[in-house]
């Protein structure tokens, strides 16, 4: 995100000495940058060596063997059933995520959490985490961001951070983990990275970290240490797959006295997205908000709908020739899916090669509507998605037959 910010103390010139004003101690400069020094970056100034570590051990990620969507069919997953009752109270937002769908470009997961996560960094790609409900704080080496219902949170690759749920309700997170960087849609950006006039949001809508955030703010001593060594959970590439490592470091990573640049976590509320509408139905690219390699993220928000006198406001039937479509239903009443069993916390998968569209009756019923009160986050991928453990566990088993009213052997 080429939008400059700074926090804390930094020297007037980059790559020059920066010292503690009282002790004269030299701070350690770290460049955190993308694409081999050729894209967005930030400079962070640490009290301690950011490369220091004292141990490395395996973080055993949950066992999962994703299954191809074969034979081909659409699916409906009820994500709230992944964390029934009060089980969220014993879950944290990182280690207890359940993967629902995934391919070589992106993994989609879900968690309902009540415990703070450990320190964590994703070394495989950026994360876009949507807050379905609840409240919390994202703490990172850049500072802290308060988050709540409807927030997207973009966390750049390799950012050391942790999630802290607040309040007495679960922090429900829908996590899109990329194997690339995640940016605003390119057509919304100038050649220098500014959000343009036709973009549905702008830089004023983005909330950056409040910082710096130092270990003593977390209860450490004045030098930025905590009692004992500190573990950082890391996802990274292992032989073409995703693996996990716990790195033990001798001082707390939250020791950055200042930073500046164009790479950092930020939050954006879906309520600040200004929908693009038209006289006739607008295609999904009109609803795009972010993109990564091999996928895009769109959102459908409450909006005035098509106002041509003969318009049909719900989507026309369409074939996903080049993509799989994943819809996460997180607010209002999604008109096109009424009668399918889909509700709050549902995810639908409409795979490439399958023609899909409104449920029976919705096409005609929408005529004359002037406003849709609906909220959904959509991920379109350009490679087929496999069914992961979390999705298989909460498949409703009936959605594929919801357009015809019957399945194999007359099943309803």
UniProtKB/TrEMBL annotation:
<feature type="domain" description="Cupin type-2">
    <location>
        <begin position="124"/>
        <end position="176"/>
    </location>
</feature>
<dbReference type="InterPro" id="IPR011051">
    <property type="entry name" value="RmlC_Cupin_sf"/>
</dbReference>
<dbReference type="InterPro" id="IPR013096">
    <property type="entry name" value="Cupin_2"/>
</dbReference>
<protein>
    <submittedName>
        <fullName>Cupin domain-containing protein</fullName>
    </submittedName>
</protein>
<dbReference type="Pfam" id="PF04209">
    <property type="entry name" value="HgmA_C"/>
</dbReference>
<dbReference type="Pfam" id="PF07883">
    <property type="entry name" value="Cupin_2"/>
</dbReference>
<dbReference type="InterPro" id="IPR005708">
    <property type="entry name" value="Homogentis_dOase"/>
</dbReference>
<dbReference type="InterPro" id="IPR014710">
    <property type="entry name" value="RmlC-like_jellyroll"/>
</dbReference>
<dbReference type="InterPro" id="IPR046451">
    <property type="entry name" value="HgmA_C"/>
</dbReference>
<feature type="domain" description="Homogentisate 1,2-dioxygenase C-terminal">
    <location>
        <begin position="312"/>
        <end position="371"/>
    </location>
</feature>
<feature type="region of interest" description="Disordered">
    <location>
        <begin position="1"/>
        <end position="21"/>
    </location>
</feature>
<comment type="similarity">
    <text>Belongs to the homogentisate dioxygenase family.</text>
</comment>
């Amino acid at each position: 995100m080429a939008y400059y910010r700074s926090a804390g103390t930094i020297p007037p010139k980059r790559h020059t000495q920066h010292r503690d004003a009282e002790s004269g101690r030299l701070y350690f400069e770290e460049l955190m940058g993308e694409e081999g020094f050729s894209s967005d970056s930030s400079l962070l100034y640490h009290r301690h060596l950011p490369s220091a570590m004292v141990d490395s051990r395996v973080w055993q990620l949950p066992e999962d063997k994703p299954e191809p969507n074969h034979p081909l069919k659409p699916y409906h997953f009820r994500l709230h059933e992944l964390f029934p009752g009060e089980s969220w109270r014993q879950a944290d937002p990182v280690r207890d995520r359940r993967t629902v769908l995934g391919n070589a470009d992106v993994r989609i997961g879900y968690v309902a959490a009540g415990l703070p996560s450990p320190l964590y960094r994703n070394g495989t790609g950026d994360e876009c985490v949507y807050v379905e409900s609840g409240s919390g704080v994202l703490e990172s080496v850049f500072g802290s961001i308060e988050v709540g219902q409807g927030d997207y949170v973009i966390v750049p690759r390799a950012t050391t951070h942790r999630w802290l749920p607040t309040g007495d309700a679960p922090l429900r997170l829908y996590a899109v983990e990329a194997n690339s960087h995640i940016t605003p849609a390119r057509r919304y950006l100038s050649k220098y990275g500014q959000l343009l006039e036709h973009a549905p949001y702008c830089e004023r809508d983005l909330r950056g970290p409040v910082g710096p955030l130092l270990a003593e703010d977390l209860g450490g001593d004045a030098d930025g240490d905590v009692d004992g060594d500190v573990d950082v959970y890391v996802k990274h590439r292992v032989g073409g797959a995703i693996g996990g490592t716990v790195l033990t470091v001798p001082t707390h990573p939250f020791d950055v006295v200042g930073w500046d640049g164009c790479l950092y976590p930020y939050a954006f509320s879906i309520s600040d997205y200004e929908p693009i509408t038209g006289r006739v139905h607008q295609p999904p690219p009109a609803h795009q908000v972010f993109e990564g390699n091999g996928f895009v993220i769109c959102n459908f928000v409450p909006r005035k709908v098509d106002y041509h006198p003969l318009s049909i406001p719900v989507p026309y039937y369409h074939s996903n020739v080049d993509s799989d479509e994943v819809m996460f239903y997180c607010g209002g009443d999604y008109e096109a899916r009424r009668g399918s069993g889909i509700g709050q916390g549902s995810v639908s998968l409409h795979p490439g090669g399958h023609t899909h569209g409104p449920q029976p009756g919705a096409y005609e019923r929408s005529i004359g509507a002037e406003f849709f009160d609906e909220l959904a986050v959509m991920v379109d991928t350009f490679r087929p998605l496999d069914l992961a453990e979390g999705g298989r566990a909460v498949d409703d088993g009936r959605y594929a037959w919801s357009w015809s009213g019957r399945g194999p052997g007359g099943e309803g």
